[in-house]
Amino acid sequence: MVSEQSSAVEADPRFTRSRRAIADTLADLVERTQSCPSVSALAQAAGIHRATFYNHFDSVEEAAVYVIADDFRALHDLNIRDRQMGADPTAVAVATLNAMLASLRQRKSLFLLASTWRSSSGLMGIGDLLLEQLHALRRDLGVDEQESEAHNSVEDVYTASGVHGVFSAAIGGNTDCDPDEIAARLYDLLPQWIRQPPESSTH
Q1: pTM for the full model?
Q2: Cβ neighbours around 51 below 10 Å, total
Q3: Distance in angstroms (rounded) separating the CA atoms of residues 160 and 97
Q4: Distance CA 35, CA 152 (A)
Q5: Residue-by-residue pLDDT tens, the chain, 203 positions
Q6: Which residues pair with 160 in a beta bridge?
Q7: Residues linked to residue 118 through DSSP beta bridges, in sequence order
Q8: Strand pairing partners for 124?
Q9: Cα separation of 1 and 199, whole Å?
Q10: Integer-rounded Cα radius of gyration of the chain
Q11: DSSP secondary-structure letter at 85?
Q12: Any long-range contacts for 128-132 (C-beta under 8 Å, 24+ apart)?
């Protein structure tokens, strides 16, 4: 996961403000310059000390993943809310994938920066973030509710890596189908527990 911190530290308003300032400033700088700022330049633009940056992230690339994580968590919450309101699970899932792709296209330079980060799980770029999203989906759909295993399942790692690969190809324009079809095609390749969750999930 991206720079996990204790809940007590995260509850500190100063910690939250600093992290938000870093994330917002990085997103703005990358959008304006289409390049990766140095830690010093990012810290100066965010109005924080360089050492403060390292209290939150190990690198600018990891901070980029955090920005994307914020977007994806919001989309996950919408996904679950829509399911709870009785929306068709397939339509919701495809819409969520479309929204994720649209978000990454809008933040293409940030996504390319995030793609160079290697997480502690060994996955590159947002692969670890997608793994986190799968765990959250399992939890919120009531799939495999037993305690988390010490290691990620092969299925989840395979799925996260595959989705990351399709997203990367789609943003680079290197897929064999119309951009509007990518989410639907990708959905068909997802594990059965996502495509056919338990009837009682989210109710």
Answers
A1: 0.84
A2: 9
A3: 13
A4: 33
A5: 454 544 445 557 788 888 999 999 999 999 999 889 999 999 999 999 999 999 999 999 999 999 999 999 999 999 999 999 999 999 999 999 999 999 999 999 999 999 999 887 788 889 999 999 999 999 998 887 554 555 678 899 999 999 999 999 999 888 888 878 999 999 999 999 888 877 655 55
A6: none
A7: 124
A8: 118
A9: 30
A10: 18
A11: T
A12: 128/1, 128/2, 128/65, 128/160, 129/2, 129/65, 129/68, 129/69, 129/72, 130/72, 130/159, 130/160, 130/163, 130/164, 131/156, 131/157, 131/160, 132/1, 132/69
| CA distance linking residue 80 with residue 114, whole number of Å | 26
Q: Residue with structure tokens 């092969």?
A: 154
Token representation of residue 103: 């978000």
